Known about the structure:
Layout: H1 3-17, H2 29-32, E1 40-41, E2 47-48, H3 49-64, E3 69-73, H4 78-94, H5 99-106, E4 123-128, H6 150-159, E5 165-166, E6 184-187, H7 188-198, H8 203-207, H9 220-231
Antiparallel strand pairs: 1-2, 3-4, 4-6, 5-6
Zinc ion (ZN) binds near residues 73, 118, 123 and 184.
Amino acid sequence: xxxxxxxxxxxxxxxxxxxxxxxxxxxxxxxxxxxxxxxxxxxxxxxxxxxxxxxxxxxxxxxxxxxxxxxxxxxxxxxxxxxxxxxxxxxxxxxxxxxxxxxxxxxxxxxxxxxxxxxxxxxxxxxxxxxxxxxxxxxxxxxxxxxxxxxxxxxxxxxxxxxxxxxxxxxxxxxxxxxxxxxxxxxxxxxxxxxxxxxxxxxxxxxxxxxxxxxxxxxxxxxxxxxxxxxxxxxxxxx
Length: 239
Ligand SMILES: [Zn+2]
């Protein structure tokens, strides 16, 4: 068994054995910041095996109620997140924003590369494949009132936890960091211990690089505050 297989087996055992682990695990930091080679499964979306298995069960159950859960985003590498970050930075700068304002705007919804929960293979962004897709699908109002994904949100609020999926970015007014994302679910049996391990890393050593736009502003106090407000600014069920 190689190191990655060992880690994946460990993760699987952890998830199956208990949901409320408060222990961190000895996980290769590269896997936590999106620079590793995790063992992922899937065709259109990529997830850790255990996450995918639980997702498939949830998908089948929802389908029986007429809801077709469709994953629009899952595993994302560091490089992918960096290209999203740099593209948004250039775009906001071209609108006349300062570097500081561009960064503040990006981190309303997007993460600093190396800090995305999507690096872990435990996260999904979902919509309902039933209604026709028009324009941007990941908008909060589409999940409420007369929006096309209201039935999906209501079903998930009632049942997602049975399958281990929890919402990190809730509407809770006391929560800091990223805005409300009714589409983003996290597979808690694995993402909880992964977060514990992640928070033990010295992130400044792992994620800052010259080719990251705005890099001179992203270290020191910014990073400390960002970890506190954004990385830890999730629903308490996932801490
Ligand atoms: Zn997401």
